[in-house]
Amino acid sequence: MERAELDGCVVNAGVGAERGAVSRRRAVGVLVLRRIALAVPVLLVVACGVFLLGAASPFDPIHQYYGEDVFTASDEQLAHTRVELGLDDPIVVQFGHWFGGIVTGDLGTSRVFHQPVAEVLAERLPWTLLLAGTGIVIAAVLALVLGVVTAWRQGGLLDRIVTAVGQGMEGLPSFVVAFAAIGVFSLGLGWLPVAGVTDGDSDATFAQVVEHLVLPALVLGVSQAPWLVLHLRQSLLTALADDHVIGARARGLPERLVVTGHALPTALLPFLNVLGTRVPELVTGAVLVETVFSWPGVASAMVEAGLAVDYPLLAVLALLATVAVLLGSLLADIATVATDPRVRADG
Amino acid sequence: MVEREVVDGSVREWRSAARTRAGTPRGGAGARARLRLGVGAGLLGVLVLAAIVVPWLWPASEQLFDYTQVRRPPSGEHVFGTDQAGRDLFVRTLAGLRVSLLVAVICAVGTITLGTVVGAVAGFLGGWPDRLLMRLLDTVNAVPHLLLGIVIVALYRGSLTAVIVSIVVTHWTTVARIVRAEVLSLRRRPFVDAAISGGATRGHILRRHILPAVAGQAALSAVLVLPHAVWHETALSFLGLGLPPHLASIGNILSDARSELLLGGWWNVAFPSVLLVLTTLATAGIAATLRDRLVPRRRSELAL
């Protein structure tokens, strides 16, 4: 920034920011409270829907409880268990029972993993957070670098390549990307392991985990990136045509300062928001990537629960994903309110 | 109006700020759009034709186990190679593509029906039914689509209906939103006022005036849903939660192919993947072109 002193806009932007800081903090507080108030009915309806789906399904919970033993158990035993589990109660009572358990922390027992659902979550959630966190960071970095370069040199060779590849990859399921990555980097070049988090049953040391994380995280990041790249490119193009950017150009500021100091901050606001609203796609990507790479996270547990009709785990994971989506959109809004002085609060 | 300036010795094209904000496409966009439509339609035509004709010409070899021909790499006899049971992957993949496309079309029809009904009712009635339906829509959108699909399909395992229902349930929201927006603007038009002063009932206006007017929009959104439906069904089948094995779709084939890939059978994965990608790209290309052509102002809204 060799001629930053010429840039009056950047300096002046700081004045008056302090005055707004207090009211902005209050706006964030109001926003969080409002969102929580809105999230409760959404979660309640989702829980209700998931429960009704389970209640209407042809799978009898008694089979889930007994497993194969249902064929050898006596009728009295079955009847006794039915009463004990409350399977013949009215559906409203059953729902109250189940939902009350979830609210008080009793999430039920997972049949696939032979342990309480809470334990499954505690064991597997950190792995998913690690994978998804790394993936989203990779996607965001890719989007920042490629988005800025392509918008800066719009119509250039790199722009045309990136735009074409990006649009093509939007239609590419992440498991196809995963197959290609396994084929090239694991089987072809032999650089990275194919699956799991450690080699065989060795301990989960840092180096081992990093080695196993690289490929799935890259696949997740790369498969999430195209949309973000194209979005950032588009909003940067719009920002480059804004009056304040034209003004910066007119003042003769260096090109680098115009793009990174004037256009990029404007374009980053919608980008932050978009990042937060991409959680559903991130969850979907995590399900597929974790399954392909046998990653021991909650997303692959969802698939295993689905395959074995492990209802308690399925329901809790669906609710968990909904919470993640709501949290993502809340974080996006907080980021917008916190960074954009023009935004007061949400409507 | 294209201005040029010289920066660092290279010529750069400039567009005035107003033009960029208005989103006017650059020169040559029309030709590119036509090319995209042509390539997309041609590609999809070839794929559909192949998916219909090839399994029909060799009806048996899709399911035929031939243990003398196990795990053969691509050759003149088996263009795509064979899988672990000696089935010819060329025929099997195209048969799978046929299943995938069929499911996608059924889903698109279901999606458009449900979405149009909900969107039209919400937009036309307004007030609390509108608010209630839109809240419901937000709630459905709050659950990641694939997870909702997994829950539905897991509880009603192994049936084609469950897969179709799971796709319709998760995708109608897009159509409903588009249709609602259209109805909201339509119901204030003079021809609706004329119908009201002519003594028409609300049901009559909805059926005879509103629904025909939104049909084009709804049809377009159904085309936009197609690639998503293909994708969704493939993902579910790939996870082992989709179509029953006797209705092998591309997803089922890819699911089997995963273990084959680790044994070195790259062709098990490569050819079905390529066909899948070509199909979704061709459909998405056609949909995007139609969208730009029919409703340029709705670009951002329709971005699925």
Automatic annotation (TrEMBL), chain B:
Q: Which locations, inside or outside the cell, does it occupy?
A: Cell membrane
Ranges for domain ABC transmembrane type-1: 97-287
Q: Does the keyword rRNA-binding apply?
A: no
- Annotated membrane-spanning segments are 35-58, 99-124, 210-231, 269-290
InterPro entries named among the record's database cross-references: BP-dependent_transpt_permease (IPR050366), MetI-like (IPR000515), MetI-like_sf (IPR035906)
Q: Which UniProt keywords apply?
A: Cell membrane, Membrane, Transmembrane, Transmembrane helix, Transport
The terms describing its cellular component in GO are:
plasma membrane
The way it spans or sits in the membrane comes to: Multi-pass membrane protein
Q: Mind telling me which Pfam families this protein's record contains?
A: BPD_transp_1
Q: What superkingdom does the record give?
A: Bacteria
| One BP annotation, GO | transmembrane transport
User: So what family is this one in?
Assistant: Belongs to the binding-protein-dependent transport system permease family.
This protein's name: Peptide/nickel transport system permease protein
Organism annotation: Prauserella isguenensis
